[in-house]
Amino acid sequence: MAVRFRLLGGVEAQVGGVTVDLGHPRQRAVLGVLLMEANRPVSTTQLLDRVWGEHCPKRGRETVYTYLSRLRTALRGVDGELRLDRRSGGYLLSVDEQAVDVHQFRHLVSRARTVGDDQQALELFEQALGLWRSEPLSGLDTPWATGLRVALDDERLAAELDHADAALRRGRHTVLLPSLSARATRHPLDERVAGQMMLALYRSGRQADALEHYQGLRRRLADELGADPGPDVQRLHHRILTAEPSLAAPSAPYVPGPQAAVVPRQLPAAAGHLVGRAPELAALDARMESAAGAGTVVITSVGGTAGIGKTALAVHWAHRARDRFPDGQLYVNLRGFDPRRQPVDPADAVRGFLDALGVAPQHLPHSPEAQAALYRSLVDGRRILVVLDNARDAEQVRPLLPGTAGAVTVVTSRNPLSGLVAVNGAHPISVDLLTEDEARQLLAARLGPGRVAAEPQAVRQIIAQCARLPLALTLAATRAEQTGFPLTALAAELAEAGRRLDVLSTDDPASEVRAVFSWSYHALTPPAARLFRLLGLHPGPDISAAATAGLAALTPREVRALLAELTRAGLLTEHLPGRYAFHDLLRDYAAEQADTADSAGERHAAVHRMLDHYVHTARTAAGLLEPAWEPPAPPPPQPGFRPEHFADHERALAWFTTEHAVLLAAVAHAAATGRDAHTWQLAQALATFLDRRGHWHDLAVVGSAAVEAADRLADCLGRPVAHRIVARAHHRRGNLDDAQTHLLRALDLYGQAGNLHGQADTHIDLARVQARRGPRVIPGILPHVHRAHTLYESSGHRLGQAQALTAIGWSHARLGDFTQALVCCRQALPALEEFDDREGQAHAWDSIAHAHHHLGRRPQAVACFHRALDLCRALGDRYLEADILHRLGDTHLAEHDPDAAHDTWQQALAILTELDHPHAAQVRAKLTALDTLGSTGGRTSGARLSDTAASGWG
Description:
By secondary structure, this protein is of the alpha/beta class. It is built from 42 helices and 14 strands. The radius of gyration is 37 Å and the shape is elongated. The chain starts with a strand and ends in a 19-residue tail after the last helix. Residues 1-95 bind DNA.
């Protein structure tokens, strides 16, 4: 089985065309050292020095032996082509040197220099230079590796210069200019590079530029070295200055004629199964139709993340519309994000289009500008389609755009190409993930409808694990086709922790999920790549710019620039202003990169900062929702975390609403990773919001996580707090026995800690639970609320005393002493207002209204109910709002206003139904009875329905 080794980049091995897992970087480096010295012995000391440098492990020799053993295992199956033998004091790797790219490079360069034919030499040089992928032995940072890279870079430059000389002798100066320009920038003092650049410029008709390039070289040499250019460059300068005829590369001018009217058909084959995309196809059709009618240039930019199906969409549409373009279809893959090869230079793409349009090589103009002008001339007035696939940026695209109406251009890119939209009038089309139904259709198209229908649950799981990404779904379907296993087995493989990207891997880099993602990732700047990796540590489902700054320890300005770069690269989506997300497969890939590139300490610190951000920000927001709340001291924050602050209650509530799903994920992540203090404190900060908005299932989930976390910490404050959170969720959902069990446990824990305030709060909670049990247990509530008042008084907690006084007033009202209820609740109001306890005020006004109702003061009751409603609506307390509306409806009916009662109860029912609260049945029954009375003409006699609901305090 053929084996290939690659060192001109990261250390890689391929067996039979399949990339082999060579282990972690140091292990790969051991193989790299042995391959560099192929067929020559390497001592263990040399291995240790070259792989570890000054950071040699304590048991270095044992480590080397272990690595070599693993490498033998990884490369088994290539016996006869590769042999690793132990020699005295070291090791010898026997291998065909032509299987190792660095040795193959040297062999090809040597042949090119001796072949004696420029055309053959060019082919050999291009083969050799094509073996380079990136920095040799990338990732290895020892002095030996650094020195080796310098030497190899020198060899590469020498080969490039020899290649350029041969190309210039063959008259390829125009094609060479972009690479010569880049090389001259990298080597500004190299006279040979300068000479090649000058000659290429001159032969392209740019004599003035060639002379200016010489003057620039002369100035740099004088400034930096105090020297003049050497005699060879000086002679070339003189020959260019005098336009010596021998320098010219003869070529005949090209005049377009009938022979140039070639009809190109360059579209690649269309994908076999394009599912969905109806809106995008309709948009492409509409752009073509509207622009054709107006006689304008048509440019459409198709954007989206890696693997989303941009090329499939563009090529499918192009085939569908090809009859509208009788003069032909041009296509080029610009390779904007291909790490294996350089992006296509626009000049090369223009040259390819000219070839397709029938321009003979001898008729090509010298300069890229002239070639681009000829291209535009040839497509002028022709109905032709130009598909520019995988563009890197607008600058790569602009030279390829036709200049007149009739030609239609479709550009695909992972970047949004905002410049093309703003400057060139391109119309953007964004390609999103498939819907679940479309994803199911894709699987059915590949696997057959019967197989998909037979395992619906497995299909749903596969779709979810593939994040509805077309590439991932296609690979999953391919795996199912190849194995023939039940879809449940594939779903289980995909769901296995950490294996999803492995299951979706192939031996084709162009269609392998990791590789496709890597093309965008490796194009990032280092700071943006770091941020992308750290975002993989965030639990999702999305993240704000402010939280991202905390995660990465960056300033808001720094993080906005990097988020913009990630968005342009298609690795992140700004789905709402200031909020960013990526699908789960990209999250997995980002987390993998973090595991590889960032130390455990860096990852731990980033997650700690993220949770610090949410805990501290949630505490601030909860303090505005509940001003009297006295939170415990938070966990010590990591340096660089950045909490948010809010101007008022409304902004705090909006933050909780926006971050709801993220905060739940953060609690789960903190619990799963053993950050127990973050877990229970974040749960506590969330509790009021979740309760008021009716998210009682979520309240139970975070409460249970908080109980387990606080128990592990044996936190004397956190444990009772957590039990109270769970109790509140049980109470709201009607599980009163469970609520009481947790509250009694909290009361016992507060008692053990001597926490009077906590005991008082828990007695209030117990009174609320008792109140839900019905009228017969109302007398049993008074001991709890009086005990709470005494405890608050003993701890000097004035607000607590007022809250307890409201509870005492409510208890008197339920016992029929409405006058005493008014006295207690009115007495509580000043302190509640002083401390801005709006929830307490709402309960007090609700109880006052309840008392007025039963004292026959119905107008006062209505007014007080509305005071309570205004307060609870400002709080965002959905259940309390419904509860008060329920009682207000009773008062309207008692006032002989059944229409107002009906409208009010209808509002209450809508909220209770939305919250899935059992009290909805009670309100629904009243509405039904009221409608029945109305239909029989007795609606105004419905006063018997006005028995008021129990006060919402309970």
